């Protein structure tokens, strides 16, 4: 799974999609909590990767992290590589 941290979303998202398209991993994990109006950075990044051609089934969202430390901590709790039950993941 390719992990894309929130913060500077443009370049990080583009790099994550490039690595995904090169076949480095079967899914992208977008990690980032609320930024404005209770919209999670992970949701914003998911919209960007969908626009760039990543199917929704290959996008996992982590919407709680408010720091880099939390990005790492919550990313460790992501569904495993074989866990595709329920389609796109949100945890």
From TrEMBL:
Q: Which Pfam families match?
A: DUF218 (PF02698)
Full protein name: DUF218 domain-containing protein
Q: Which organism is it from?
A: Moorella mulderi DSM 14980
Q: Supply one GO CC term from the record.
A: plasma membrane
Q: Mind telling me which PANTHER family this protein's record contains?
A: ENVELOPE BIOGENESIS FACTOR ELYC, INNER MEMBRANE PROTEIN, PROBABLE PERMEASE
Name the GO terms of the biological process aspect: Gram-negative-bacterium-type cell wall biogenesis; peptidoglycan metabolic process
| Gene3D superfamilies in alphabetical order | HUPs
Q: Where is the DUF218 domain?
A: 2-75
